Amino acid sequence: MNLNLERPIIFFDIESTGLNIASDAIIELSFVKVYPDAKEEIKTWKIKPWDYQNARQIPINPSASEVNGIKDEDLKDCPRFIEVVEEIVDMMRDCDLAGFNSTKFDLPMLVEEIERVKSYCESRIALHGLAEDKKNKAKQVLAQIDIDLHACTMVDVQNIYHFMEPRNLRAAYRFYCGGKDFENAHSAEADTLATYEVLKAQLDKYSTPNPINNLSLKNDIKSLSELNSRAKAYDFAARIILKNGVPTINFGKHSGKSVKEVFDNERSYFAWIANGDFTLDTKRQFRRLEEQYKQELLEESKKEPSQEALEQLKLNFNSK
Q: What is the pTM of this model?
């Protein structure tokens, strides 16, 4: 069925250096623009992710490369976002937008990239000593990318999917256990028994490779637990994750930093966690790690200094 459109709609998708909207960047952006007469226009940009403040390419997180197949060297000769932003914004003008999970990620990431360009241009205009032609160029870019994406009508296809095909226990029971509801849904005992029946039915259904993705389930609790998307969470709220086995902060200004690094450089952060609006489990895990690092420092201080360390101290003293 063709879409009933009053104006063009752009379906779009983004690949990025990672999932942190505040610090990651777009590396690929694709538009499919559908007009009211059903005509389609497709445009895809490969983009060199750029840190404007430090004038350098932003590296792609290895886990992101595993998903999208794009590596840093693939983008070294591609334009930066600032070099294509006018074309991108021009294509979006007077359009509605659509995507899959786009309200949570793709649209915020796209807006963030546009805001970075705006901020960079504004800093150029305010820069003392910058040539007037360069300031005028920055003013021109600002004028060309003046668009309010908050005002766009946004269709998130994932939301429709979840609305029409609920992802809850009752829906799972219908799908895996014969197409009917179970009795006394939402009583604890009935829900628990239904969950048990669903897992057994899943093991039956996926005992051989699925023709869609060639995956099967192994009837082994450890293997099943590893399918949990939160399995690498260090605390249940996933404020800390295990990254290459290292407890790593997964939110806020220190996202991506190891907990140990923050302990070494900003001890007050742990007090902020302890007094903040976090789950008790999260607070407990931060407190446990803080105590661990303090104990490690204490044990290190009790060790006899090595001969090498003593010689270095002697050199330092004699050089003064």
A: 0.65
